[in-house]
Amino acid sequence: MVAANMTLGSEHNILGAYLIGSGFIAGISNLLGLMAFWWYPHVLCTPSAIPEVALLLSDLCVACIHPFSGFAAIKNEWVWGEYGCQLYGFFGFLFGNFQCLCVPFVAFDRFIESDAPPLLKKLRTKRIYARVFVLLFLLTFIWAVTPLPIIGWA
Hints:
Layout: H1 9-39, H2 41-44, H3 49-75, H4 81-115, H5 118-122, H6 126-145
Helix pairs in contact: 1-3, 3-4, 4-6
């Protein structure tokens, strides 16, 4: 039995336009956020800037891959080949997962800033935050490159 394509071409065009448009808007928004940190370097001197910049960068990278799926939706097929599919999945998982790790850390940083015990406030340094984010990125990278056929992806 052959699976029939049950979607209309107009649905793919709408979805593709949405993905391209949202990727463009998200990319511009994240670039503006990064430029704000660039224009006001005294803000970068705080430990809170590290998780915020990491979140902006990872969100920018996710926004940059939106047009690939948008163009594929308009074309009604994946046009980037097998290697493009692997890269798209790798970078989507890498930066999407890193975002999922950045958001709780931003919330944790806000807790430390506002209402944490003094012991936690002592740990709020740029050096410690930078090390934590390097470890978070390495953890995400290991999950992205490790073939795990037992779980379902490879």
